[in-house]
Design a protein that fits this description.
Two copies of one chain form a homodimer.
Chain A (H helix, E strand, L loop, with lengths): L9 H14 L4 E5 L7 H4 L9 E2 L3 E2 L2 E3 L2 E5 L14 H14 L7 E5 L6 H9 L5 E5 L3 H16 L4 E12 L6 E2 L6 H8 L4 E7 L1 H9 L3 H4 L4 H18 L3
Parallel strand pairs in A: 1-5, 1-6, 7-8, 8-10
Antiparallel strand pairs in A: 2-3, 4-5, 8-9
């Protein structure tokens, strides 16, 4: 799960997609590779929860909503800044991946940090990635960075499974007026131009942000909402892309 | 200009704050230190514009809206991903800072990438920073990362000049209903709790995003708007903080 630009809802999509995949019957793990700004503990309702350890080097993932999770945010103090240069980040990610006793299964969703730097290179070297899903808002500055992410994954030969448009237009809950706060539709157009599958669009909805802040992702807490349906559609499209052998 | 989390509008605030400072009569430069996702060229209307060079090593800043600008985005091809590990980023930033013939003046605003990593350490080592301004949305996950930024700057002894709340509640342009898409007011509360000055609040407004995407920042293109007024208030508060000797 990459994005290029931060703050486009990559973690929100990662968390909800994991829950949607689990609801479809796929055993799913979630690895938070954002060492500088881990969002998984808050969004999964795992704030201030420490994983169990065995000996010096074995970590057990935290399980919530049927998902096995690991995040640096569950290992260091929440307010502490991880002021680490690239080589240390590389080491930490390698340890978290290797020392966690992952249960195996069908999917591991890796929530990447923004950018196209150390963490991304590290992961493509450490894991055999089935593919990359790129999240973007419809806004030009976000799409530009998203396309850089696409270029990076193509350069390191990780298949790009598709693009997700997040924060697509806002609809006033009172009067129904649509305001394209971050624009609308550009991600689908960009995907078409670059020959990348378009996996789906998620609207700006208060319940998505509130669900994330409360540790109750909308896909789990309001499975009948329009947003949860959007995440399930994206999950289904993703499975289809993988089965098609991209 | 730091944020911890990406996508909170750090570049938008940097650009509009620079223009507001210039409008107050301060000679201002803008340095885009986000090597992986430079937003300055789009936001300042400098897309596909190359800076003049002299010999092998001297770059001249691009000037727009009275601001002298330098960004990696004006030197590499727009769609190209800068897949560089930390040490190369360090080198590129050092070169951009050193090889640019900055005109001097009152302010240099440095637009940092998200996180608390290589670029931040590099800049605190290379420059004597007058202080850090932290941008956050009112959302919990953003504020958590913002406070990590605060902790980092305090650790490396850069004074934190204040916190800016961006994307504070959305007001429907049709019916006037306020929706706290990314919540509202939490940044001011967090600033108070951490004894950091609160510099001001910027609403979610379509014109701010559109201005950024079109290269016409709202402070320059719609100086009478509520948003431009908010940026000017923040600029004035910032100057006051600096004069107070923080």
């Amino acid at each position: 799960m990459g994005s290029g630009k931060g703050g486009v809802g990559k973690s929100t999509v990662a968390v909800n997609l994991a829950i949607a995949l689990a609801a479809m019957g796929h055993k799913t793990s979630l690895f938070d590779a954002d060492i500088y700004g881990p969002s998984l503990p808050i969004m999964m309702g795992l704030r201030n929860t420490k994983p169990k350890m065995e000996g010096q080097n074995t970590l057990f993932p935290l399980t919530k909503y049927g998902i096995d999770c690991m995040s640096i945010g569950n290992l260091v103090e929440e307010a502490a800044a991880t002021i680490w240069r690239g080589p240390i980040v590389h080491q930490v990610i390698e340890q978290l991946l290797r020392d966690t006793r992952w249960p195996g299964g069908d999917f591991m969703i890796i929530d990447l940090p923004p950018g196209t730097g150390d963490t991304h290179l590290t992961l493509t070297q450490l894991c055999e990635l089935a593919g990359a899903v790129i999240v973007s808002t419809p806004q030009d500055v976000a799409l530009l960075d998203a396309m850089k992410s696409v270029a990076m994954f193509q350069k390191v030969e990780v298949p790009v499974l598709g693009l997700v448009e997040n924060m697509s237009a806002f609809i006033c809950p009172k009067c129904g007026t649509e305001t394209p706060i971050f624009d609308k539709g550009n991600a689908e157009r960009a995907a078409g131009q670059s020959n990348i599958p378009f996996l789906g669009r998620i609207p700006i909805e208060l319940s998505i942000r509130v669900g994330g802040d409360m540790g109750k992702p909308v896909t789990a807490s309001q499975p009948d909402s329009v947003s949860a349906q959007a995440f399930r559609t994206i999950a289904a499209n993703l499975v289809q892309e993988l089965e098609a052998g991209h």
